[in-house]
Amino acid sequence: MLKPLGDRVILEAQEEEQTVGGIVLASNAKEKSQSGKVIAVGEGRVLDNGEKVAPAVKTGDTVIFDKYAGTEVSYEDKKYLVLHEKDIVAITD
């Protein structure tokens, strides 16, 4: 499995297949997802004084992130999103 470094987080983005009204959209008309499930978390970021700050999210959390954040990667025929923890805006229940 992929292991993120520093304050990076690996997400499995949730695909939105239809609108609220129930209309199914073509793949090129879909908006980029802004939510996903945390698959892996790095060890945290290091401050200028050398102190390490633990990440606020953990594996299994469902999060909302900035719309154009992160880098898409493929690993073992699955697509993941790698982003910095600062790009996560909320954890959902």
Description:
By secondary structure, this protein is mainly β. Helix content is 0%, strand content 41%. The protein has no helices and eight strands. The protein has strands at residues 8-13, 35-41, 45-46, 52-53, 62-65, 71-75, 78-84, 88-92. The strands form two sheets. Strands 6-7-1-2-5-8 form a six-stranded antiparallel β-sheet, with no helix packed on it. A hairpin with a 2-residue loop joins strand 6 and strand 7 (78-84). It is globular and about 50 Å long. The two termini are 25 Å apart.
Q: Give me the side-by-side strand order of the main sheet.
A: 6-7-1-2-5-8
Large-scale geometry: globular
Measured between the Cα atoms of the first and last residue, the distance is 25 Å
Q: Report the strand count.
A: 8
Helices, strands, pairings?
Elements: E1 8-13, E2 35-41, E3 45-46, E4 52-53, E5 62-65, E6 71-75, E7 78-84, E8 88-92
Antiparallel strand pairs: 1-2, 1-7, 2-5, 3-4, 5-8, 6-7
Any descriptors?
single chain, 0% helix, 93 residues, two-stranded antiparallel ribbon, 6-stranded antiparallel beta sheet
Question: What is the gist of this entry?
Answer:
A six-stranded antiparallel beta sheet has the order 6-7-1-2-5-8, with no helix packed on it. The protein has strands spanning 8-13, 35-41, 45-46, 52-53, 62-65, 71-75, 78-84, 88-92. The protein contains no helices and eight strands.
